[in-house]
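REVIEWER CHECKLIST
Item 1: Sequence provided? yes
Item 2: Single chain? yes
Item 3: Sequence as submitted:
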Amino acid sequence: MLTKELKTSAVKKELDLQEFVRNEVKSLFDMKPNNDPLYQVYDTIDKAISAKFKIPDNKEDTTKIDILRIVEFFNTFHFFESINDFIRDAYVNYNHLRHGFLTNGVLLRTEKIEDELKVKTGYTIQELVKLHIEKPEMYKNILNEIKGELEGFIATGSGEKWYFWPGCEMKIPVRTNIVLDTSISKSKFVITEKTGDTNHNKSQIVMEEKPYQLEFSILMDTDFFYKKTDNDKQKLNPGFFNINKSSENYTTVDFSEIELELQKGEKYDYTLYIPYASPRLDVKTNMKIFNTDETVEEFIATCT
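Item 4: Structure as written out by the authors:
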């Protein structure tokens, strides 16, 4: 049996390997960002934020950088999935790839079928790590193909081409089910106890993000804590309430952060509801307004 120290060491080793693999793949595209419009926009945002905050001075700056990167990459990704069917299909249809799109990256290979690009295969960073360990030759061949493609040695006219999206940089548990939801504007995270005779007997935590606050619905007793400071940890009791970071003057609150802790996490299942506001779902509205003198004013608008 692994001790706690050995478990911690094993987890750190796995995370280090994930970072190594991500950097190895990403470095290839960093050298040739212009080969892929999606990656070129990512690279531009990445450099702009990095130039603005080269070394974070404090925790507030770190929070600001994290929020800016997640929001900007999430919005960029939604635009590009709206104009690229193969990216949209991978994001909508495959939960493991959706997890990669939102967290630390997805590597996709396309093929052309009847003049349309389709996803031939796709890997998350975790899956690439598994290849790196179990099938090193296959992993090496993928990197060589990417390098050859980006350098122009391999023709991509057939539609077989590698694409890499480095992710929106969210941190989401690997076994989380991610559901796209058109009815919400901010994310909702649902934690449900695995045991219990019926849904009414299960402990459950529902967290809904609102501007400047988190709203909570906690059913039955849980191992859930709110960390006000490193030395002040408060258990959250069942009920309906919010943790509010706002004030009467919105200009005084900026890029806030809330620290939470869930113990005995293996007891629960996780579902993350992500807002799905792709431009594909917008409806362009046109209305002509006629005056009695037959002059016309035109109203044109979209939803987002």
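Item 5: Key structural point noted by reviewer: The longest strand covers residues 116-124.
Item 6: Recommendation: ____
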